[in-house]
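Continued from yesterday's entry.
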Amino acid sequence: MRRGFVYAMNSSMTSIGPCHSMSSFQISSTPISSGLLNIFGQLDLAVEYLMVHKDFQSAFDTCQRGFENLDNVAEEEDSRYGELKASLCTVGIQALAEHNQWRGVLGWVLQHFGSADKMPPKIMQMCILLYSKVGEHATMQEEGHMWLHCPDNTNLSGYGTVAELYLLHVLIPLGLTTEAQQLVAGEVGSAAFTADQRQVALDLIDSQKSPQERQTPSPGPGATPQMTTNLITSQGSVVQRLHGMLRLLQRGISVVRSSWKFVPLRRFLLTAFLLYLLLVRMDPALPSSFPWVLKLLRLLKQMWYAMFGPYYRASAAV
């Protein structure tokens, strides 16, 4: 894992950790407890290990100690509890990624937040980008779905960004175009994107579909797999009958051309009548065309028996 791995994913992600130095927290008018002040110092030390010394293991270990101390501090004690927790998590994710231990990132994050829907937007964005970078798109499929469908996250400032990353780096790379369309057209898309953004997203999803998915018509809402199978079978039988009829028609016309001496007018009328039956009156996709097919087939059989069949068949045909 090359250095600067996570930083290259999104430069805005790094603003959570290094910029929140201990001095910046002291500017606030709210007094800081001694417990939180100690954790702030550990955060600064972890950032120094990560960015200055490139000692990723020490940076991660320092974040771990910060979380242990944070567990002893009540969340209501200071309004910056959540921000400090996210900062420690951000530095820890970067340290694990740089130390080529990215496989344990999700489990470590869930260990501190309990469930995926409790993650801050920045942490969810980092996890999606991290696992997308290493080609493990499916790792964040369930967690991203849970986070986006949590009502408490809908009004967060980073909700739209998480939805966009989940669409581009999880669903589309996995080929889940149906799920992607449902996401954009559903409640998540309405909350995360504008109308123009939803249209652009739908066009992008459509461009990622395979040619078979674009050409195959989707069955109706009441269609069942058995109905679809019966429809395909019936269409196949109609096509087979049509092919057989055309082969018989071609054979009959060739025989008529070589054996009978029609005048040009009668030959033209016969050809026009056959073309009328084929092109106008007979649509193989409609059940109403079956009687015309049978009549034409019977007529051709009569012509065949009259010209080449035994005497008794010719008499019966007449």
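--- second protein ---
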Amino acid sequence: MSAGNLFAFVLFASPIPTFKRIVRNKSTEQFSGLPYVYSLLNCLICMWYGLPFVSYGVILVATVNSIGAVCQLVYVTLFIIYADTTRRLKMSGLLIAVLCVFSLIIYVSLELFDHQSRQTFVGYLSVASLISMFASPLFIINLVIRTRSVEFMPFYLSLATFLMSVSFFAYGLLLHDFFVYVPNGIGTVLGVIQLLLYAYYCRKPSEESRLPLLGSHG
């Protein structure tokens, strides 16, 4: 699974150009922090799913997502620092909500479920959060189609999502783990859609190419 881990790390690192620009300009401009909040919650839930408290034999899922959670927390923190007051309050509230939801998931899964039913409970939550994370870049499809430009379609994020999804889809099939292969199968399809959009619109004449950024929709 070294390939899946590598693609996951590329995925987690792909927003770095975005945040270099945010820090340089000391502003989040018109870009959204929502995908990073989705990703943080997803990484926390998948990390919990991969730990022996919940599942056996998928520790790689836990290690990869623990690193991912740290990366997303850094991105959300930077977004809060450089956002205007209204968006700073909104993002801070969302961050607190994510941490509260994750704490509640841990408490409920440990107190109300035995080990087998706990894996099922957290597994379904991880499926839902993974699909949300994979789908979050699709929020900007309307913007891409309307502007006929891929400036706001983060190519490396889309590519890394696709490659990671394929790798973990294969990993889940190998382990016969429904909660790993189903969401990553969906992620593979969504990744293909994003790459096809990029391939189509990158050939269209557009403004001077800029760093790939995540567009704003909230």
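The chain has nine helices and no strands. Residues 206-218 have pLDDT under 50 and may be disordered. Will compare against the first tomorrow.
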